[in-house]
Amino acid sequence: MATPPVARHDGGISRSSRVLIMGGSPENRDAIATDLRARGVRLVDSVGDGPSTIIDAGMWGRSDSDWRTPFRETIKALRAVKTTWSSEQAYGKNTYVAVVGGASNGAPPAEHGIWSGLAKSVPREYPTAIGRVVELPEDAANAGGLLSDALTSTMAIEVRHDGQTLSTPLAVTRSVIQTARSLGEADTVVMTGGARGIGYALAVGLARRGAHVIVSGRDDLDEFRNEEWVRLDEADFREQYHLALIDAKTGRLAEVRKEFERRTRIRALLSNLAAAEQEGLILAYERCDVHSAQSVQQLFNRAIGDISVVVHNAGIDDPKRLDQKTTASMEHVISVKLDGLRNVQAAMVGRNVGTLALTGSLTGRYGGMRGQLDYSAANETLAFASREETNRSYRVMCTSWPTWNGVGLISNMEAARQYMEPIDVAEGVRAWIDELEHDSRGEVAFMGEFAAVSAQHLQGVPIPSNWSGAGEMLARRFFLGEVASYQPDARIVTTHRLPLAATPWLASASVDRAAALPLSAVVEYLVRSTDGFLIDLGEVCALNNLVIHLDVLEVDDQTILTRTARLIDHRHVEVVLARQRDGAEVLLARAVLRCEPRSDRHIRTAFVEPQHHAGTGEIDYKWPSGEMSTLAFLNGEETGLFGGTPELPTKTRSVAIEKALAADRLPAELRITQLVVRTTDDQQPTRTAERLETTDA
Fold first, then answer.
1. I need a surface site. Which of 138, 293, 364, 514 has the fewest CB within 10 A?
2. What DSSP element (H or E) covers 483?
3. DSSP symbols for 70-101
C-alpha cells in the first residue's frame, strides 16, 4: 500500500535556525548542544535572543518528580516568543520540540506527558509553528544524534528513537477483544468526579447493571440543598442570572459569572443525584478533593470490600488563549489529572483492585482546540501513565475520547464540532463499559470524523490504515501539498509536486496529444483548498465563476502547482491554481467555492455552462480513463511511518465531471458559470466512535 511521500521538514535545526535548548538534565542538554554545534546549528542562550526553535527537554533525564518548576519555565518561554511566533506567516519557520523518554528505553513517566501535550497544541496558539514530540532513552550515549535524526527524517508529530530505528505511535482498529468479566451486583466502582458530564453517564450505566457506584466531587452538597437558587426551575434560574449581570458593576461581571458557574455546577450535581435516587440506583456521592492525598484516601475508605474498578475521571478545563490565563490556572488544570492520579495510585496500595481506568481525551493524542494547551497536557499525562512499566497487580487503561454530544467539559459545542464530530452519549457509555469489561490495557482512543484540521496535523498525524476514515484523511493530506504561507483564518498558500509515477490519474488526460492534468483533477485541487483553515467550512457544493486554461494542463515529472486559497467568509473561498513555468507562475484555474453545512454524501449532477472566450482558440482535449473515479496510488512505494490505502477517494466523481465537460475540442480558456459538486458516496460515513488502540509503526 502506498501514499505519496510526505515532504520532510528540516526539524527546526538547519544552519539558519536559532535554537534554544532548555529543561531536562544538564547532561542531556549538553549532549544535544554538542551534536547541533557539530552540524553548524546556531545556539542561543535565552528566549530573549529570539529563538526560531525551542528544544524543551522538560523532565527528561531529571531524577525528581517536581513538574511545576520546569513547566513554569516552559510557559514563560512560550509567552516570550508570542510577538514573533504569532505574527509569522512562513509555515514551519518556528518549531517547538518536546523531548521525553524513560531510562534504558523504558516508557516515560506520566509527568513527561505534559510536554508532549504542549507540543501537540502549540500550533493552535501559533498556527505557523511546528510542534514535535521525540521520545529518546534518557541514558542514550548519542542522544543529540538520535534527536537530530528523528527531527529530520520525518514530519510525524510524534516519534520514538530506540537507538536503532524510528517508530511512531499508530492507532489501529481492534474489532475483537477478549472478554474478562461482566460488571454487576457483585462489583464496586469508585470514581473521582463522576457526578456530572460523561462520568455521570458512565456511573448511571454501571449502576443500571447493578454495580455499587461511588462518585465524588469537591463540593459539600449539604451546604447548598436549602439554598433558594437550588430550588428554582431552569427558567427562573436563568432570569436570576440575567438580573445579576444587569445589577453588577462593570468590575464585578467576571465575579458574577464565576459564581453562577459554580451554582450551575451544583444544581447539576443535585439534579443528577436526585434522578439516580428516583431510579433506585445504588449511586452514592462523597466529597473528595483529588489534590489531597488524605481526601482521596478517605474516598476509598467509603468502599466496603474489594474494588472492581477505579475510574480517575476528575478534570477541569479553562479554555482561554495563553495570554489570557495565568500559569497558576494552567497548573491547576494539569494537577487535577496528574497529581490526582498519583494520589489515587497511593490510595490503591494494599487494596484488591482489578482495574484503574483513566478518563483521557483526544486533545492529548492529537492536540487540543485553541486555548487548550494545559488541557491537552493534562490528558496526555494519563495516556503516558497507561504505558508506565510497573509491577502493580491491576491493569491500567486510558480511554481517550472525542467530545460527547451535549455533556462533558466542553462549553462551546459548536467550536468543538469544527474539529471532530461529537460522540453520541449512549454509544459512548456502551463503548466505555465494553472496555471496562474486557481486557483492554494502555491507551484506547475513540475517533470520529474529522472536520477542520490544521496543516501540521494533516501532515504529521499517523493515520491508521484500517480506520474507516483513513482514505479520506490521506486524500486530504495529499491535496494539502507543501504549505508555504499559512494564515489559517484568512489565507493559505501551498505548492504541489505531481508524483506521476505513483499517481497516473494525474496525467490520464491529453491536450493536443500531450499528457495532461484531467479537468476533474483541476476541480479536485480547487475543491480541496478548504483544508488547513481552522474553520469548518462544511462541504463545497459549487464552484462559481470557474475558469480553466486548458493550454496550461500539460504535465510531466517536473510539474509544480501553486495554490492560493483566500477565505472570503465562513461559506466562500476564493482559490487560484497556478503552474510554475520558466521561473514564473502561469494561471491554470480560478474559482469561488460556495460551501454549505455538511448534509448528504451523494453526488449531484454537475450543472455546467461552458462559455467560449473570444480569441483564445480551441484545444484538443481527451480523457480516455472513464473508470478512474478515485485517486489510485500504485503499490510498491515506501510508506515510511504512515499507514495507507491503495485508493484515496476524491470529493468529486471524476466521471461525472468529465462527462459534463465532454467535447472533442474545448476553448483554451474554459469558463463555467457554476459547477455543482457533492461528496461522493463511494465511502461510508465514519462511525462516531470507532475504537483504536495505540501501537508502534
1. 514
2. strand 482-487
3. HHHHHHHHHHHTHHHHHH--BTTSSEEEEEE-
C-alpha 503/C-alpha 530 separation (Å) is 22
Q: Which range, of 58-72, 79-93, 326-340, 665-679, averages the lowest pLDDT? A: 665-679
Residue closest to 478 by CA, chosen among 528, 515, 543 = 528
Phi, psi of 650 (to 5 degrees): -90, 155
* Segment (H or E) for 308: strand 307-312
Q: What is the pLDDT of residue 140?
A: 81
Q: Check pLDDT > 80 for residue 328.
A: yes
- Find the angle CA(267)-CA(271)-CA(276) to the nearest 5 degrees: 150
Phi, psi for 214 (deg, rounded to 5): -115, 115
Tell whether the torsion through CA atoms of 514, 518, 519 and 525 is positive or negative: negative
**Strand, coil or helix: what is 8?**
coil
DSSP 377-406: HHHHHHHHHTT-----SSEEEEEEE--BTT
CA distances from 499 to 5, 114, 528, 531 (A): 9, 39, 17, 20
B/e letters for 383-412, b = 16+ CB within 10 Å, e = fewer, are bbbbbeeeeeebbbbbbbbbbbbebbbbee
pLDDT at 43 over 50: yes
| Model confidence at 628: pLDDT above 80 | no
Tell me the C-alpha distance between 165 and 159, whole Å.
Answer: 10
Q: Which residue has the higher pLDDT, 127 or 5?
A: 127
> What gap in Å lies between CA 360 and CA 313, rounded to an integer?
8
CA-CA distance, 470 to 692, in Å (whole number)? 12
Phi, psi (5° rounding) for residue 329? Answer: -65, -35
- Rounded Cα gap, residues 478 and 7, in angstroms: 10
Degrees to nearest 5, angle at CA 145 with 142 and 146: 85
Quick one: average pLDDT of 664-678?
75
**Separation between Cα atoms, residue 206 and residue 203, nearest integer Å:** 5
Helix-helix angle 113-125:68-80, to 10 degrees: 20
Mean pLDDT within 572-586: 92
Return the sign of the alpha-carbon dihedral for residues 412, 286, 380, 118.
positive
Residue 359 Cα distances to 240, 246, 380, 388, 622, angstroms: 34, 39, 11, 16, 56
Helix (H) or strand (E) holding 44: strand 42-44
CB atoms within 10 A of CB 141: 10
pLDDT tens per residue, range 60-97: 988 888 999 999 999 999 999 999 999 999 999 999 99
394-430: pLDDT as tens digits:
999 999 888 888 775 555 555 555 566 778 889 889 9
The CB density around residue 2, as the number of other CB atoms within 10 Å, is 18
Give the angle subtended at the CA of 99 by the CAs of 93 and 100, to the nearest 5°: 150
pLDDT tens profile 214-243: 999 999 888 888 889 988 999 999 999 899
